[in-house]
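Input record, target 12 of the design panel.
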């Protein structure tokens, strides 16, 4: 079987990959939401009478 250090190294690598994936996902979602043009429903109506 594997030694304990190999198991610990693989678990640490998996955690780092998972954290990196979450950070990358949040960056993509944040960039997509900031580049999205605001829809007319988001803006208050003009009450010019």
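The sequence produced for target 12 reads:
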């Amino acid at each position: 079987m594997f030694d304990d250090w190999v198991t610990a190294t693989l678990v640490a690598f998996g955690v780092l990959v998972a954290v990196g994936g979450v950070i990358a996902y949040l960056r993509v979602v944040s960039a997509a939401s900031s580049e999205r043009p605001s829809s007319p429903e988001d803006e208050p109506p003009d009450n010019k009478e």
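Residues 4-35 form the longest helix (32 residues).
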